[in-house]
Protein: short-chain-enoyl-CoA hydratase
Amino acid sequence: MNYNNLILNFENEIAIIKINRPKALNALNKETLEELDLAITDLDKNDKIKTVIISGEGKKAFVAGADISEMKSMNVKEAKDFSLLGNQVFNKIENSTKIFIAAVNGYALGGGCELALACDIRIAAKGAKFGQPEINLGIIPGFGGTQRLTKVIGKSQALELILTGDNIDAEEAKILKLVNQIVEVEDIMEKAKLIAEKIAKKSAPIISTAKEAVNFALEHPSAEGSKFEANLFSTCFSTKDQKEGMQAFLNNRKADFKNE
Ligand code: HXC
Structure:
């Protein structure tokens, strides 16, 4: 499949998606979101892939937001459809059986910050900048930012970013737990691949089960979460990989997971 606005590459069990509109700092227009939707739907069905890295093409930006030139003349209905489209795509990332790593190589503003937030793990380049500057455009975040940012950094920190529209640098983002790690920009893909490869060595059904269990914690009270965890924990014992993992430990060797 050829995309106009994405570059998709495969390295063993890792897929790498680059948002490819560097002249517009990788701003997300409708077509890019639709392509991302297709790419993620395809990857979700691909048994060979365990992890997906998302990054931005070019030196400056991960994604500098939704495309302002396209949004400018939207009416209320079109704006709602656009917001719902972005939410649909980012929810697909969040609920995918694959593990998504955002390699934030530069500006992650507005919809770009929201895209990073939908990913499971976020690595930032030293010079990366995060923010929700929508307020300066007379709008609020619309691709899930008011929800995910609040869950990740807490209400008052989220409101400060959303209401001031200020950008923060990677160091501050790390303090706020918005990013997991900071690396030099030239090392970011290598670092993201290292994490992706490490995860890809584990069992596919078990990594997706772990993601499902952790996601559940964000939406449900602890008592329900404990029951949900016990159910998912027990389903691990219906896999060959649980047997292999435990047998390998007892035999003092590395597990050779078959993703079954
Ligand atoms: C459309 C964009 C863009 C965007 C940058 N460009 N961001 N085009 N949508 N979000 C374009 C510029 O118009 C310019 O095009 C080119 O990319 C380079 O950008 P410059 O501004 O010249 O670069 P620089 O001076 O280095 O400033 C970088 C920047 C700035 C700080 C990132 O571009 C910026 O503030 N961008 C907008 C950030 C933003 O407000 N994002 C939130 C959008 S709203 P030309 O043709 O002039 O070279 C949003 C809502 C999501 O995300 C929810 C929707 C439902």
